[in-house]
Structures are given as C-alpha cells and as structure tokens.
C-alpha cells in the first residue's frame, strides 16, 4: 500500500523559472506573495497530493 502525503503545495511563476514544492502552507503562501511583490510576476499555488519520497538505495 502506497502512503500519500497530503497538503503539499506547488508554487509556480508564469513569467520566469521560479517554482517550489512546500509541505507547509504558510511557507508556500509567503513564497508566493514575496515573489509576486518583489518581481511583479503572476504566481499560482496549487495544493497537491503526491507519493511520499523514496529513500535512496
């Protein structure tokens, strides 16, 4: 059975290469707001589910 991580947030800019995945909602919002404010870019945030990361072999 695969475990799922919930409340993972994908933040991405539509005008440059800024992108990040955050497990903390507040951090994701802070990054989103800071990038929009500092760079005047359009940024979106999406809550996603993803499989838990695999440990290195």
pLDDT < 50 stretches: none
Tell me the overall shape. globular
Strand content: 35-45%
Total beta-strand segments: 3
Mean pLDDT across all residues, rounded? 83
**SSE succession:** EEHE
Q: What would you report as the Rg, rounded to the nearest angstrom?
A: 13 Å
Q: What is the end-to-end distance?
A: 19 Å
- The percent range for helix content is 25-40%
In what order do the strands lie side by side in the largest sheet?
A: 2-1-3
Structural summary, described in words:
With 57 residues, the protein is an alpha+beta fold. The chain has a domain at 14-50. It is built from one helix and three strands; from the N terminus they run ββαβ. It has a three-stranded antiparallel sheet with strand order 2-1-3, covered by helices on one side. The longest helix has 15 residues, at 25-39. The two termini are 19 Å apart. The model has no long low-confidence stretch (mean pLDDT 83).
Provide the fold topology.
Layout: E1 4-13, E2 19-22, H1 25-39, E3 43-51
Antiparallel strand pairs: 1-2, 1-3
Q: Outline of this structure?
A:
The chain is α+β, with helices and mostly antiparallel strands and 57 residues long. It has one helix at residues 25-39; strands at 4-13, 19-22, 43-51. It has a domain at 14-50.
Features:
alpha+beta, 1 helix, 3-stranded antiparallel β-sheet
């Amino acid at each position: 059975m695969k475990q799922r991580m919930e409340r993972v947030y994908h933040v991405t800019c539509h005008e440059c290469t800024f992108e990040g995945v955050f497990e903390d909602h507040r951090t994701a919002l802070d990054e989103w707001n800071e990038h929009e404010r500092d760079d005047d870019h359009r940024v979106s945030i999406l809550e996603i589910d993803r499989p838990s990361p695999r440990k290195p072999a």
